[in-house]
Amino acid sequence: MRQSKIPTKGRFFIELFVAFIVTRLPFIQIPFKWLESYFHELSHGLATLMTGGSVSHIQLFPNGAGLCFSQGGWPVAIGFSGYFGAALWGFLLFILATSSRGIRVSYGLLGVGVLLTIALWGRDLLTIVILLVLAGLFLLPLKLKGKAFFNTWLRIMALMIMLNAFASPTYLLGIGGRGDAAMLASQTWIPAWIWVAIWLLLSGWMLFLSWRRVCDAKPSS
User: Fold this and answer.
1) Is residue 160 domain-resident?
2) pLDDT (0 to 100) of residue 69
3) Is there a domain that residue 187 lies in?
4) 39 lies in some domain
5) How far apart are CA 130 and CA 124, in angstroms?
């Protein structure tokens, strides 16, 4: 028998298909777009702190866009971290969802992490409401019973984050001199489209690593 928390190959593709469909459904996909945007801006904020800067606040918008207001830090690391960080967070969530134990603790920590973000970096009412919705995505399932549901739901959320992180950078190609790619191009002289290509490759790599985790699962005794 396979490890109980790691899906079969067929189930992985079903969950990936469900994640893809949900990210394309009007209205329904909005909270999960917010989730990718949250991890995107959180990654900007963490990169700022790690490179010696300070973060004032994070702002999220209903259309899935977001901003991280900060001072100092290394612009290249900060600019690069958004799309890469969102994909990496998605992969880390997939790892949590395929771990053998502690799934309820994982949900709790993720929910508390979002609430902590509100306390530290939430300033406007709309952002706080959006973050409360995201906290609910992690905390409300704890009211339900059934460990299989917890793992499946978290895997699907992780796949949706990675899919959104894969799709989001492509929008930068149509907005000219704005966005993270344009900022990185001005800082490094590397064209914006190359940065977009790097993000696409890294997001694809996170999805591939998730698939490899399924393929490499060892039968349990």
Assistant:
1) yes
2) 96
3) yes
4) yes
5) 10
Tens of pLDDT, residue by residue over 39-57, are 999 999 999 999 999 999 9
- Checking if the pLDDT of 146 tops 70, the result is no
Give dist(CA 162, CA 84) in Å, integer.
10
The answer to whether position 219 is within a domain reads no
- pLDDT of residue 177 exceeding 80, the answer is no
Q: Rounded distance, CA 33 to CA 23, Å?
A: 7
For 69, the domain range is 9-166+176-212
This prediction has a pTM of 0.91
H or E stretch including 42?
A: helix 30-50
Give me the number of domains the chain comprises.
1
Q: Do residues 195 and 180 lie in contact, with contact meaning Cβ atoms separated by under 8 Å? A: yes
Per-residue pLDDT reduced to its tens digit, 94-111: 999 888 677 888 889 999
Max Cα distance, the chain (Å): 56
User: In sequence order, what DSSP letters do the residues of 114-174 get, joined into one string?
Assistant: HHHHHHHHB-SHHHHHHHHHHHHHHHGGGGS--HHHHHHHHHHHHHHHHHHHHHGGGGGGG
